[in-house]
Design goal:
The chain has 15 helices and twelve strands. Strands 4, 5, 6, 7, 8, 9, 10, 11 and 12 form a nine-stranded mixed β-sheet that branches. It folds into three domains: about 40 residues; about 100 residues; about 190 residues, P-loop containing nucleotide triphosphate hydrolases (Rossmann fold). The two termini are about 40 Å apart.
């Protein structure tokens, strides 16, 4: 089977390339987002018959092998019998017996090797057949899902409308498909949109007010990859605290001792606010700083930014977890990242657990459904959203109603090339039929 790979800047561009090269009846194996665009794996429909014929030939070959599979066993039995007979005459013909025994052992070893080689060959053929069967099943399931969603579009245009709106907002195909399937019957467009917003709101967990942060106090560490805005967000939170409670009971710590001048930015903010900033490098420094600040009501820790694939992530989580003082870890998530990247970040920084998250760069994102989707899926509590560089203005308490409304209504002419056409939705849903388990959503 000649499987072809097609790459385009968007799924629609890649689908167009598939149709051009393989025709309208092409069988699509996968359609996934990769770095720089979309990748589609596909092959011609007429190659399916060739694949089936190949499987039948492999089956016949294995059957012929199985018919002769007893031969090594029979040979082994005869050789063992011969060895036993020779052993009985050992006293009479010691030298001759030793020679025959050596020859017999050689034959036995040869028989074992032939039997083992035959088993390995058979196992490889069986593995090949099972893999091909799984591929065929996935192809058939995908094709059936595509047909089913084509029927849904004709039978229930409201579901198709909701599906397109969710995908256009940046929500994953898996979540979009699930919500569209669970949409109650006989709803008009307005009520259907209200139902979707309600369900998303029930599953997006946010803090109700700033009591959990500014009033209750404690130690909070902002963590996340490079460039996500941790230092600026730390300064915004510090400024909000100072505006409400003054400077006397606030402590600031930075672990960013790796970059040249990495801690200077927070020091500047601290100087403006009138708060001293402690720079730490390891567990000992952190313990000393926390001990000196133990009488402070609230302590904010700005951490060094590293890629989610860097081993320093583990070291950083270990540093924060080593403290005898409980430290709440808040993960900063860049709203401009794809859902796949955000999921990768969460998995890397999760460590022994996250206490919550903050969405940053909200003002730079063309769509924010990707960020909300991941937060819902990972069951994180959303504390704040940051939407600019101004301190302390550009940070707000997370409002789930406003965020969901923004996600579903954030439209720009620049996004049109990346929107799915109505006729393309069944293909997208066909590929999303088995992606992810999101049956734990509340209020469905």
């Amino acid at each position: 089977m000649n499987i072809r790979r097609f790459f385009g800047k968007s799924s629609r561009e890649a689908l167009t390339m598939v149709r051009k090269e393989l025709g309208d009846d092409a069988v699509i194996l996968s359609n996934r987002v990769v770095a720089g665009g979309n990748e589609i794996m596909a092959f011609r429909e007429d190659e399916m018959n060739a694949m089936v014929n190949d499987n039948q030939a492999v089956h016949a070959f294995n059957y012929e092998q199985a018919k002769h599979h007893d031969e090594p066993t029979a040979l082994l039995s005869l050789l063992n019998k011969s060895a036993r007979e020779e052993h009985q005459h050992f006293d009479a013909k010691k030298i001759d017996s030793q020679s025959k025994s050596s020859s017999t052992q050689t034959h036995i070893n040869d028989a074992h090797r032939h039997a083992s080689a035959g088993n390995v060959a058979t196992s490889k053929q069986m593995a090949f057949m099972l893999n091909e069967m799984r591929n065929m099943r996935n192809v058939i399931e995908s094709q059936l899902a595509t047909i089913a969603w084509s029927n849904v579009q004709q039978r229930d245009p409201i579901k198709s409308e909701i599906l397109g709106a969710l995908l256009g907002a940046g929500f994953s195909p898996a979540l979009s498909r699930y919500l569209a399937e669970k949409l109650p019957e006989n709803l008009d467009s307005k009520k259907a949109n209200a139902w979707v917003k309600y369900i998303l709101g029930k599953n997006l967990h946010t803090i109700e007010n700033e009591t959990e942060v500014l009033d209750q106090g404690g130690v909070f560490a902002l963590i996340g990859p490079t460039g996500v805005g941790k230092t600026t967000t730390t300064a915004k939170l510090a400024a909000r605290y100072v505006m409400k409670h003054g400077t006397q009971n606030l402590g600031l710590i930075t672990t960013d001792a790796y970059r040249v001048g990495g801690h200077e930015q927070l020091r500047i903010y601290g100087k403006i606010l009138g708060v001293m900033v402690y720079a730490v490098k390891d567990e000992t420094d952190l313990a000393i700083a926390l001990n000196e600040l133990k009488n402070k009501h609230t302590i904010l820790i700005d951490t060094v930014g590293v890629s989610q694939r860097d081993r320093m992530v583990t070291e950083q989580i270990a540093l924060l977890s080593s403290s005898k003082t409980p430290i709440k870890k808040l993960l900063c998530l860049n709203a401009t990242n794809t859902g796949e990247t955000l999921t990768d970040v969460i998995q890397a920084y999760k460590g022994k657990g996250l206490d919550g998250c903050i969405i940053t760069k909200l003002d730079e994102a063309a769509t924010i459904g990707n960020a909300l989707d991941v937060i819902i899926r990972e069951k994180l509590k959303l504390y704040y959203t940051a939407n600019g560089q101004r301190v302390p203005e550009d940070i707000n308490l997370a409002n789930k109603i406003e965020l969901i409304h923004l996600a579903l209504n954030l439209k720009s002419p620049a996004n049109r090339p990346f929107q799915f056409l109505t006729e393309e939705l069944p293909f997208v849903m066909g590929q999303a039929s088995s992606t992810g388990n999101i049956s734990q959503l509340a209020e469905i």
